[in-house]
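Worked problem 6 (solution included).
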Amino acid sequence: MHANESSYAFPEGFLWGGAVAANQVEGAYQEGGKGLSTQDVTPQGIVGPVTEAPTPKNMKLIAIDFYHRYPEDIRLLAEMGFKVFRTSIAWSRIFPKGDEAEPNEAGLQFYDDLFDECLKYGIQPMVTLSHYETPLHLSRTYDGWVNRRMIGFYTRYAETVFTRYREKVKYWLTFNEINSILEAPFMSGGISTPKDRLSRQDLYQAIHHELVASARAVQLCHQIIPDAKIGCMVLSLPAYPITPAPDDVIAAMEYEHKNQFFADVHLRGRYPGYMQRFFRENGIRIAMEPDDEETLRHTVDFLSFSYYMSICQAADPSQHRKGEGNIFGGVANPYLEASEWGWQIDPQGLRYALNQFYDRYQKPLFIVENGLGAADKLIVQDGMPTVEDDYRIEYMNDHLIQVWEAIQDGVEVLGYTAWGCIDCVSFSTAQLKKRYGFIYVDRHDDGSGTLERYRKKSFHWYREVIGTNGASLKRRP
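Solution. The predicted structure is:
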């Protein structure tokens, strides 16, 4: 089939669905024996300060009340035809402080009930073990992943949930966007030491502990649930050189190495040479236990990733206008438009990322986050509240066509879960104003709203995409 033909049918068995994170939808932050997490003290998201205790200004404390409303929400996802639903387990629901010997039964039962609800509709749960949600006690007592004891706490938690849900969950992810620890050490790694005082030595030691813990989780999953698949999850941020100048090309390569490092260890089972050089040149000495290298050889079954945008890199970034929405660095691409939050829109970057990953690893890939955050406006049409979100439909249509292109290139793509399939609290800004969903939730940044759910125009569009296995996608001029 040529790229100009009209049908974009995806492979049989392609897993269509959506994704959320526990801390961005559940609310009920102290119900059912749940302990506090790092999310409960970050009322402004990644961009704001950490508070001593939860504050009412933190939208995540109630979020969209998924904890109480999940049966209604799962029913709506089933109406769209979801094959898979990616969510996370709140670690502090299972081990409220993180270092207890015994888990919290009420927390375990909540996820039993949630997964049963998914399976009732034929929706496979895909579960992230750690999605920016370290128990706050582990962060404040141990400085998060800087401390090697975190490996044991995480391993106990992983073994607990693998054993409990071995009949219900067949797709697992170890850490969400594990490479984001480079820019967000508190949110991503539970590291209490302020970023401006965190040494490179401690940061990369923390990363090593996470990588060893991830590999141990892979080993445990393969032992406890032999028919499950477990993957890693990275933030994909393709970097183009701002010019063809060799210095700019090398700058882009070196930036990509910073992120590829995490996937390389997960999929190749060892530290790559370029990181050994980085450690030598920066005086970093990773403290390893005797069996760490052997543990790292337990590699994942597939690579999953988020993709929202690409960036550019330059040898001299000060000469170029920075992209305002690029939390994770980079300079603006003059050929791309941006969302209202300043994230540059590059559908072809998704095809490029898929090909890069597959060329590098020849392992199955899963796109577990992609979508457009926008300030949706609720209107009444034919007597029903809805949102005319054609901008989201265009964004997702164009990205999914590039996924199809990558599949034609020979890339093995297992599935696609649209981020924030139901409106949730933004990770980056902790706002509800920044909406991603196919389902509108009537809650606002001032705390007002009924929490009622309404189908957006994109809800019906995505249902058709799933129902036709992608054949309804349309190439736009």
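Discussion: The two ends are 19 Å apart (CA to CA).
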